Amino acid sequence: MSDDCAFTSISPDAVSAYEQEGVICLRGLFTSSWLELLAAGIERNLGEPGPFAKRYTPVGAPGLFFGDYCNWRQIPEYAAFLFNSPASEAAGQLMQSQRVNLFHEHVLVKEPGTLERTPWHQDQPYYCVDGAQICSIWLPLDPVPQETCPEFVAGSHRFVDNRDHPTTEPGFRAVPDVDAERSCYRIHSWDLRPGDCIVFHALTLHGAPGNQLSHRRRAFVSRWTGDDARFVLRSGFMSPPPPPDAPSPGSRMDSPAFPVVWPREERRSDAGVA
């Protein structure tokens, strides 16, 4: 896939927009071969769910909402994408970080007719990492019209929630009822074609509708950390659970659990990945 490794630098305007809004849509970042690779990995994942797999759709309800994460060490297609695609460099440029660690991957599949929404939430309050340089790349493998696209509250990366993830830590406050007061917020969503992606800060408030389309909505989410990220153990619920080969609390993320992926030369020496 040597041709797919070519990467056009993120523009200064895009970096500024990500910094201000906490979310940005990048068009055509991934070629079809990367999407085909991930499609094969997702089919493997659906047939061989990992220990954190979850079916969100009740038995007997229409459609299927499936989620799973932290399988990159068991699914070679995921590892190939995470270590070799443009994703890590794009994350590094948007976060303005000199290096990028892999945090984990997260797969979300909503089959046609699925009613379940993804509720409004922020990610970082239940992550085992703190810092300003933490982001996710939401990459759909299927066309996503705006009515099925995740939604993001612009600028919401400047506050933190604890409604769904109880904690005694200071500085957390409840998620607002966005749907009841939509006119009070600037909400971003897009029409997406395969190859497009959404990059968002780990504190950006987001949610997603069900899937009433005639085709499935498969999304591969890669999650990344930058220079200022530090491993933490929270007082409340954590997801994903801290892995056994994680660094000690307060340390940089560098570890077998969270290898340096970009720059690629540093990845090879730190993580032993060719």
Description:
This protein is an alpha+beta fold and 274 residues long. It has a single domain, classed as Sandwich (Jelly Rolls), CATH 2.60.120. The protein is 19% helix and 23% strand. The protein is built from five helices and 14 strands. Strands 1, 2, 3, 4, 7, 10, 12 and 14 form an eight-stranded antiparallel β-sheet that branches. The model is unreliable at 268-274 (pLDDT under 50).
Q: Helicity range of the residues?
A: 10-25%
CA radius of gyration is: 18 Å
Number of domains: 1
Taking pLDDT < 50 over at least 5 consecutive residues as the criterion, the unreliable ranges are 268-274
- In total, how many beta strands? 14
Classified in CATH, the superfamily is: q2cbj1_9rhob like domain
Let me know the average pLDDT.
90
Instruction: Bin the strand percentage.
Output: 15-25%
Q: How far apart are the first and last residues' alpha carbons, in Å?
A: 14 Å
Number of helices: 5
- What's the SSE pattern? HEHEEHHEEEEEEEEEEEH
CATH architecture: Sandwich
Please identify the oligomeric state.
single chain
**Which fold name is given in CATH as the topology?**
Jelly Rolls
* Dominant shape: globular
Main attributes?
19% helix, Jelly Rolls, 274 residues, disordered C terminus, globular, alpha+beta
List the helices and strands and how they pair.
Layout: H1 12-21, E1 23-26, H2 32-47, E2 54-55, E3 65-69, H3 76-84, H4 87-95, E4 100-110, E5 118-121, E6 129-130, E7 134-140, E8 151-153, E9 187-188, E10 197-201, E11 206-208, E12 217-225, E13 230-231, E14 260-262, H5 264-271
Antiparallel strand pairs: 1-10, 2-3, 3-4, 4-12, 4-14, 5-11, 6-13, 7-10, 7-12, 8-9, 8-11
